[in-house]
Structures are given as structure tokens and as C-alpha cells.
Amino acid sequence: MTRPNALKAVVRFCVLLALVSAASLTANAQHTSVETIQFQSKLINATLPYNVILPPGYRAAATTRYPVLYLLHGWGGHYTDWLTRTNIADYAAQYRMIIVMPEGNDSWYIDGAAGINDKYESYILKELMPDVDKRYRTIQSRYGRAIAGLSMGGYGAIKFGLKYPATFVFAGSMSGAFGVTRYAEREMASPNLEPFMKTFGPLGSETRKANDVFEITHSLSPARVASLPYFYFDCGTEDAAQHFDRNRELSELFLEKKIPHEYRELPGNHSWQYWDQQVQEVVRIAAEKLKGVGVRGLGVEKRRPSK
Fold first, then answer.
1. Residue ranges of E strands in the chain
2. What is the tens place of the pLDDT at every residue in 262-299?
3. Engineered SS bond to 156: which of 63, 108, 109, 144, CB 3.0-4.6 Å?
4. For residue 129, what are the domain limits?
5. What pTM value is reported for the model?
6. Is residue 155 part of a domain?
């Protein structure tokens, strides 16, 4: 081989190596990454882990801030459910947002009637969210924060949206258990009744009233309605009446109170097949609502002032 040909071969090899490296970087940029944080809660006096899905390119974009979607699990479930029972990490790859999946145990995301180590509503607001903002480059204002969930988590998300409109721009639910504050022996058979009663107290308790989404909605003034986030919720037409009927009832009440929302009744039941399908839509709508002030769900530069 002559010297010029050898030089050409080296050049070709370098070009090929560069192309392979670029392709590898491009491929990696299309994938999300997942982290697990072992958070020690002082309010609950327990370790409450949470999973975080970071958007493609998060590590490379050192100054970009991202909106956050908090995704709540259902009753009997845990913070790992979304990653192990749906394809949420794949669905999230097309959006430049952070998704946080906290541990809620069977708390219904309320400050329970017992009053000791069961302040899960306060935990979400006063411990989890500040910790997420501290660890990650988040948009730390209402227009950069959304919340959603399934069943118990759907109830919790809508409740958070109603009670804390200055905190969230969007609240979404799949198969929300909105009638939970009305549950008694029939709905919560033994052995689940005792812990449930410990959380909510007896029928008519102050804890039930304070966390009843229908009571909260009825009490809203027009000015308060105007401050609410956008709501989305859906329910499968084959779901149990205690869920399906309450979803329809809440939508009717929202219409009466002129609360902007979208409600869908879709084929399906109270199952992971249904939730894996619908979480794609919830994430899409959340991304739209998180656009706020030109954010477009794509992250904003750190130098851009918060509003």
C-alpha cells in the first residue's frame, strides 16, 4: 500500500468512527434515564422512595430547566408500579419533562385522621416537591408543575388540584376513586376496613369532609374556580359502579360550577391494560398544559426569569 492510500484509509477510518460516535450519541439522546431516591420523611417518620424519569438530554443540557409531572400510584400499589407495569419510560421519551413517581402506600394522599405519621398530603407538598426542586433543574412555579394518577392516585391528583390551585397548572386522573370519602363496610371489606377507617375516620368525620372532592367543589366561589388548574379525567365503561358513577357525577358537578375540564368514558376496566393505554394521553395533555408562558413542554433556559 502506498503512503497516500494508507493516509486515505486512516481518514476513512476516522470518519467512520466519528459517524458511529455521533449515531451513538443521537441514540442515547432519545432515551430517558431513571433514578431512585431514598427519601427520609420526617413527617411520616419513614423512608419513602421515589422514582424519577429524566428526559432525553437532561445531563447534556446543563442550564435547561424542566417542568415536572408528579404521577401517583393506586391503592395497594407502590412507587415502582408505573415503571414495572406500564411503558411510561418509553412514552416519556418524546417529552422534555421530568416525571416523579412517589411512594404513597395506602394513604389516599391525605393527612389522615390518626394524626401521627400519616401526613401524606403534607409530605407531597412540603417534603417531596422541595426535595425534587433541590435535586433537579425544575421550573419552580405553577406553570411548570402537574399532577396525575390512577384510582387512589387519580383521586389524590384531583384533590390536590382543587385544594392547591396555585401549585399546579394541570391535574389528571385515570379511573379516579372519587367516592372514597363515602366508603364504609360495603366498599372496604375486612381486612381492609380497619386501616381505612384509621385513615379517614368514621362516616361524617372532619377528615372525610376536608378531603371529599364533591364537598370541596360545591364550596368553590367563582373567584376560586377561576384560579383552578385544568382538569382531565377518564374512566372505563366496564369499571365498577363505585368508580364509574362517581366519575360521571364529578364531571356533572364541574359543568355546573363551570370548571374547565375534559372527561372521557372509554372502553376498559380497572386494570393495568387500561392505565397503560391512558397514561399516554395523560402525559400528552400534561405536556400541553405545561407549555405555559412559551415553555412548550420542552424545558426553558435557566437565564429566563421565572414568572
1. 33-41, 46-54, 64-65, 68-72, 98-102, 145-150, 170-174, 230-236, 261-266, 300-301
2. 999 999 999 999 999 999 999 999 999 996 323 334 44
3. 109
4. 32-301
5. 0.86
6. yes
